[in-house]
Design a protein that fits this description.
The structure is a single chain. Helix content is 58%, strand content 15%. The longest helix has 49 residues. It is built from 25 helices and 22 strands. It folds into 3 domains: 222 residues, no CATH class; 150 residues, 2-Layer Sandwich (Alpha-Beta Plaits), CATH 3.30.70.270; 241 residues, Alpha-Beta Barrel (TIM Barrel). Helix 1 crosses helix 6.
Amino acid sequence: MFDGSYNTSLVLFSLVVAILASYTALDMAGRITTAEGKSAHWWLAGGSGAMGLGIWSMHFIGMLAFSLPIPLGYDALITLLSLLIAIATSAFALWLVSQKELPWLRLGCGALLMGTGVAGMHYTGMAAMRMTPGIRYIPSIFCLSVLIAIVASGVALWIAFRLRRQSSQVWLLRAGAGVVMGCAIVGMHYTGMAAAQFPLGSACGAARDGVSIGWLALVIIIVTLAVLAIALIISVLDLRLESRTMALAISLAEANQELTHLALHDNLTKLPNRVLFEDRLDQAIRGADREKTRFGLMFMDLDGFKAINDAYGHHTGDLLLVEVAQRIVGNVRAQDTIARVGGDEFVLITNVGEPTDAATVADKLLRAIREPFQVAGHELRVSASIGIAMYPGNGVHQHELLTNADAAMYHAKALGRNTSCFFEVSMNANVHEQLQLAQDLRSALERRELILHYQPKFEAPNGPITGVEALVRWAHPTRGLIPPDEFIPLAEKTGLIVPLDEWVLNEACRQMREWRDAGHTSWTMAVNLSALQFSHARLVETVREALQRHALEPRCLTLEITESTAMRDADASLKILQQLHDMGVRISIDDFGTGYSSLLYLKRLPASELKIDRGFIRDLAHDTEDAAIVSAIVALGQTLNLKIVAEGVETEAQQQFLTRLGCNSLQGFLLGRPMPAAQFIETISQIDVLDGVA
């Protein structure tokens, strides 16, 4: 027998290639598992080629490391066949480990097939030498090599299946597993080589017409390392791209989820908003129709919330709303829907079978809400008025159902508040009247039904007249003269207050121009601004346009804004009022003393006068507390160099007391009632204090 020998360098290179091929196989298994669609097929094809080439290269480099004392060569076609066997075996292995499960029976069958394939590749490569006489194999060592191939294949499949998922430490585990698998593959190869015997006188048939081995080892090593390196680099880059894409997809999904939540929930209380509530109500109606069940709809409005909001500011009011929302949620069932649909308005869809059950839920909520709240260091108390509508019975669709629950809530307020009330058909009359009044108000501006009455302001105590206040009235064609306290709240609720205020401002400026042309050049015109108009983006421009339209000097116009409106957002109010002041318009803080003002902000406001609320004037002669408050307001105004106007003066005692305190101007029924422009001039001309002024 010929004695063979090995090139140590090539043996070491074969081990390196085997380890690198094993690591590449593990990495490809992970990529195929995470890929989807056509991408998975491409990774399977590419991975099979790279893995098969690596295993085959290890085998062929090992073959090239072996030498005999005769010329050797390899048949190209048979060698190519061994490469195809390696690629096919690799494809089977990668497909197997990419499955969702790998039970023991499947693992065993896979190990048998893959081991047979690896052994087939090896011995097919040996046959490429075309030895004459043929190579003899020691049966025991031959069987051992096949057994090693099967066992190594089973271990490789199990390791690849376990390490196919990506994680922060998986590369380290794969490196260790690659070393184990590489050594097993090398062990199988050299065990198979040890089983081969070459009789004396043997000749290699492929030595003359086969592939020359002189330069082949170097080429195979370079090509194989390049292919495996490229495969790994592509895998790493694709994994990073996939990770970034996945991170971006997760971020987009989270952003979409957050946007969806924001679109369907109230930003303050985090409760469902009107959009989501209407969808839930529609589902509740369909479910009740389908299952022949009933549910209750409750419309809740807080009693006394506006007073707290005005007294402590909007920040405290918002915190109170959050606390109320949490308390309501804590007293209803998880399957019920509670939503915030307005400032202090909440609605509840509760799955109850009978009205008595709905009444029980409402009573529970009433008790919970009227318990004191601890908010921003204050103990605050509110109650609720609840209107209840049942479905079916109190409406056939969601708009009617909600309207009826709203009507019942207003009826509960009319009964004294802090109570609940079931809807009755008779309540619709008031609702329909309000709806009709709102429709009439929309067309009142176009039909010129709104008029202004003017109430004089007198220099204390008796004159002369310093100016007038414009007060809007509605001359309804069928209802007669409607006072502002009946339609102003409706205008604010429907948003019509902004165009209404603009009309009042323009008409007041027009009338002031007419009076100045008639010689009343010392008068000023006061116009009230609603909270909505004050926060409107075009307020300053609207005032400027009205003054320019009627060629009126800005100092002739006084804009009255309530204390609570001015303090709602003091910094924003300061900017708006400063722009108006810079224009030359006078600013008056109306209803002073009824809100909660910070003196720090009050002294910064560019106001020219304070107007004492009529509530302090009404019982001035009998109530020492009101007298003390009025005295303090007058003293504060004088300290800040502001003129003081007292409204609601109805008795001579009030007139004398306010004059002694130092009020600059007085306004009230004692001195002059609001009246139309023509009557105003006629009445004023009869007052003695105007002789020589008109």
